[in-house]
Amino acid sequence: MKHILHMTALALAMTASAVVADNPVTALADLRVTDDRIDRPLEGFVWYPTADTQAVQTYHGNPVWQGIEAAKDADAIPGKYPLVVLSHGMYGNAMNQSWLADALVAEGFVVAAVHHPGTSTWMRDADQARQMWDRPRDVSRVIDHMLTDPAYANLIDDDKIYMAGHSLGGFTAVAQAGGRYDADGFEAFCDSHPAELVCGIFDRWQVARTPEDKVAMQADLSDDRIKGFAVFDLGGTQTFARESLAGIDEPMLIFGAPRDIQGLDLDIESRALVAALPMDQVTYLEPATLSHFDFLGVCTDKAEALLAEEEPDDVFVCQHGQAERAAEHAMIAAIVAASFR
After folding, report:
1. 61 φ, ψ to 5°?
2. How far is 268 from 341, CA to CA, in rounded Å?
3. For the chain, how many structural domains are there in total?
4. Cα 252 from chain centroid?
5. Is residue 62 part of a domain?
6. Cα atoms in the 13 Å half-sphere on the side-chain side of 123
7. Beta carbons of 249 and 278 less than 8 angstroms apart
8. H or E element: which one contains 323?
9. Is residue 206 part of a domain?
10. Average of pLDDT values for 232-260?
11. Taking CA 310 as the corner, what is the angle to CA 304 and CA 313, rounded to the nearest 5 degrees?
12. CA separation for the pair 31, 116 (Å, rounded)
């Protein structure tokens, strides 16, 4: 197995400092993608640099999750910025990686994310979940929108478009990079690994059950405008045809999360992905203290007690979720920013 750790990426991340005009703060705006897909509306957020410090308030927080400081609908600092599109995990939402968006804005990026219909917190529709091929297309639609919306088109450097995804969002990222769904191969894998998490999820959602759905899932869902990818503890490596993974020709920054807090099997997921990708395209990091849910937000002081009382099955999402997670976030954001330069 190729198990690759590029220390140069770490060194770059810790020493890199973006040249960003006027020391920006984060601005936040609602995002509504306007296109002809009226059957699949996309909403989320855009984060971008502003000099407006007067309108800063806390957003995207609640009793469980700490928010970020941002200025709503503030004027952007003029310039051309790299664009990063984020893809959340199963039953997550566009706010899940707002911590990363905030950090990337400080480094001179514009960031966008949407709630994926069918697999997001407030849109758990079984039929839309079945149409898994639409997840990568959601990202392409966001890029289309950002490049044509007058509010953002002049801010985006269209030669510097990137994507990052967590968990099922990592699956989405690999599909955008050129990974092709392999219905027969995945069926064979699940026959021999019936208890594997992704097998149960795709079975429950009835993914690729019909001939028509297999064709849609096995289509080329890549987007060659995206020049690099960050994949955060993905789920779904075994769904991809190995020859398609071997043909990916964009840089892939991959994080595996070895701390076992309701996590994924790295040998089946992140490590297996690294082994299948071209060696010269991969930077693989596996920090010993990183867990699957460290890619979510920092938890509040009262989060664990609140979850223990109201949602006891979910307490694990906030284990090690305060100072330790904040330190992990700083490390991850620095490496992602350096990778996407």
Report:
1. -110, 160
2. 30
3. 1
4. 13
5. yes
6. 20
7. yes
8. helix 323-339
9. yes
10. 97
11. 70
12. 13
Give the CATH number for residue 217.
3.40.50.1820
Q: 243: domain range?
A: 7-296+328-339
Which residues lie below 8 Å from residue 176, measured CB to CB, with a gap of 6+?
A: 136, 139, 140, 163, 221, 222, 223, 226, 229
Specify if 303 maps to a domain.
no
CA distance 172 to 179: 9
pLDDT tens string 77-103: 999 999 999 999 999 999 999 999 999
Q: Which of 92, 58, 91 is nearest to 72 (CA)?
A: 58
The mean pLDDT of 255-263, rounded to a whole number, is: 84
Q: Which of 255, 226, 284, 295 is nearest to 82 (CA)?
A: 226
The reply to whether 317 falls in a domain is no
Nearest to 230 by CA among 261, 256, 200, 263: 256
The answer to whether residues 24 and 69 touch, using CB atoms and an 8 Å cutoff, is no
Model pLDDT for residues 276-311, shown as the tens digit of each residue? 999 999 999 999 999 999 999 999 999 999 999 999
